[in-house]
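Thread: quick sanity check before group meeting

JM: Hey all, I'm pulling together slides for Thursday and realized we never actually wrote out the predicted structure for the chain we discussed last week. Dropping the sequence here so it's in one place. If anyone has concerns about the input, flag it before I start.
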Amino acid sequence: MATMEDVARAADVSLSTVSHVVNGTRKVSPKTVAAVNAAMQQIGYVPNMLARALAGSSSGTIGVAISAFTNHYFSETVRAIEAACTRHGLMMLFSDTHDDPEQELKVVQNLHQRRVDGIVLAPSGDPHNRALDYLTSNKIASVLVDRMSPQAFDQVGVENVEATAQLVSHLIAAHGHRRIGFIAGAPGLSTTDERIDGYRLALQRANITFDADLLRSGDSNLERSGAATRELLALPAGQRPTAIVAGNNLMTIGTMHALRDAHIAVPQDVALAGFDDFDWADYFSPRLTVMAQPLEELGAMAVDLLIERIAHPGRDQHVQRLSPTLRVRNSCGCP
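JM (edit): ok, ran it. Output follows.
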């Protein structure tokens, strides 16, 4: 049976481009659409028929294990996955992991017991990889989203290193900041490590010496990011940051709250930028400069990869990195 990868090779385009054409998740040039459609016809790939074939021989249900209730970014990711499932005629069974390794393992086990056809997982920072090992040992069709793993799984996430470097570099090049604080996410997550790498890369490119005092852990939540911001503001005069970058949307909000509580004007006193966009970032005062992730594309790709894995369990693993978009607003100092 033909796969999306076969279509991509036949049309000489990327796998994500085929996904866009199939799911309508991004505008594609008419010439490329024609090439993809011709390739699908040539090799006999029919995506809706594939989904119906899966549903006919199995439960037609995909399990989703993500910590969404306390993280707006992940709730939007779940919404995108559900929309992709609907397009393929599949049901979605969702359970929240609360980013807790023990709860994560229970959720994965429960979804398995309910005989879902496959599982989409945003893995926690479990140092023992219990949920991932369970998926592997039970040969469960799985796709990891957002947080990447060195283990052999189909995975889809964004490019974090260069994206974070671009965000930090904007503060350096456009606004002349040299003392830039970075509030990092929870330890043990690939997104945390990659965004720290991007922060340090931007400093290196600008010949700015890395200062460990300006790197603080916000633990991916509101409370700890607020505390991290207060730690940065408590540095001696001359050592405090003139700009802060937060590693996810929750930490951006926590940072903003802490700055306001300290009567620090943004961007006049301290500039602010963050990773992840959200619906009301454009309505903050000031409007937030962020690196926006392509959530609809992420959800569509995760479901596409899982359908392919279910249909072709022996194929090679595929890892897809999507490009986020810098959205420049006012909090960085731009008009």
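AS: nice. Residues 132 and 151 are 8 Å apart (CA to CA). The first helix runs from residue 4 to 11.
JM: adding both to the slides.
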